[in-house]
Structure formats: structure tokens, C-alpha cells
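Researcher: I've been going back and forth with a colleague about how nicotinamidase might be arranged in three dimensions. Neither of us has a model we trust, so I'd like an independent prediction. The organism is Pseudogemmobacter lacusdianii, in case that matters for your notes. Sequence below.
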Amino acid sequence: MRPADPAQPADAALIVIDVQNDFCPGGALAVAEGDQIINQINGLMGQFQNVVFTQDWHPSDHLSFADNHQGAAPFTLTEMPYGPQVLWPRHCVIGSKGADFHPDLNEGPAQMVIRKGFRTGIDSYSAFFENDRSTVTGLDGYLKARGITSVTLVGLALDYCVAYSALDAAALGYKVTVLESACRAIDLNGSLAEARDKMRAAGVTLGG
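Model: Here is an independent structure prediction for nicotinamidase. You can compare it with whatever you and your colleague have in mind.
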């Protein structure tokens, strides 16, 4: 249900990135304190007329899973046809509890759920493009059809799916804000500092 008096204009959208069980404490690819942002996100949703969720949604044979590569360790790199790819622990498998949104997240305000990473051979960090940088998720078309010109991003993880989404949104012409207080990061080998630098360089506002 839309809020009666949202604080944000009608051309603004809140994009809630991957607040799923496997990315929260106790999950297969847990982000430290990932569950501590949920109350803030629930409150933010009341300020927006337009709310979109993204959901990591992988088949069990997904090639980003380390255990689908003989002898490969999680968090190492492999080469995919589209370039370097981090190999992750198995997570967010289609239909699993780990792929579900965290039970404390209020799903009611979400008007669209973008599922990403469901193609076996392509990982997908961004809410807009898969990692081959050409396969679209459909989010850009959806937002433009609704007249959205600015997006605020929150969720998990700040230095991967949130940052990739923010960079793509900026490149697509949106005014982009990332609320860091409503995100948490993995920070793998300096990935957080690198992501922040890239977002600032692209004109993304880092707030909160």
C-alpha cells in the first residue's frame, strides 16, 4: 500500500538490494551486521511512492559457486567469458530458505521484485545489468516507464551489488544516492574503499 504522505517526490524510487537470509548473519554468505539495517529500511519505505526489491536467485549449478569448480576455493577468482569472476560459497539457491527475504523485512511496499543471477553462466551483481554488462534485468525499462529520475539504494552488500547497481544507475542517467547507514559491506581485499571511490567518481551521493 502506498503511503498517504510520502516525503520523496513521485519520480523517486527506493531500491532495496538483496536483503535475503543468506546475506544476513547465519546465512551462507553472511555480511556482518547485515540484519541490523532492516529496521531502517522498513522505515525508509514509507517515504517513497515507488519501492523495488532485488533478489539474488541462482540455480544450483551456477558457475559463480566455488563448489561447481573442482578444487576451487571460495573467494578466489576464475575467468568467465565476460571476464574475472569471484567464486562464492553456494548461496541464494532458487527456492531455498537462504534465497528468501529476511523475515523482518517488510515486503508489503515492494511493487516490483527483480530477480537476478538466474542464468547458469552469468553472475549478476547489478540491479540493472548482469555481469556480462549487456544482459539487462528489465529494471531500467520499468523505472523509465514510471517516470523515475532518481533512485536511492540500500541493502547488501555495499561494495558489490549496491555499488554495481549505483554505478549502472548513474551511467543510465539517474540521480543516485546510496544511504551507507542502511547498507553493510563484505570488504573483500579492499573492495569497500574501491567501491566508494568509484561511486564518488561517477557522481553518486554517499549519504547517511
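Researcher: What would you highlight for our discussion?
Model: I'd start with this: The helical segments are 38-45, 139-145, 158-171, 191-201. After that, consider the following. The longest helix spans residues 158-171.
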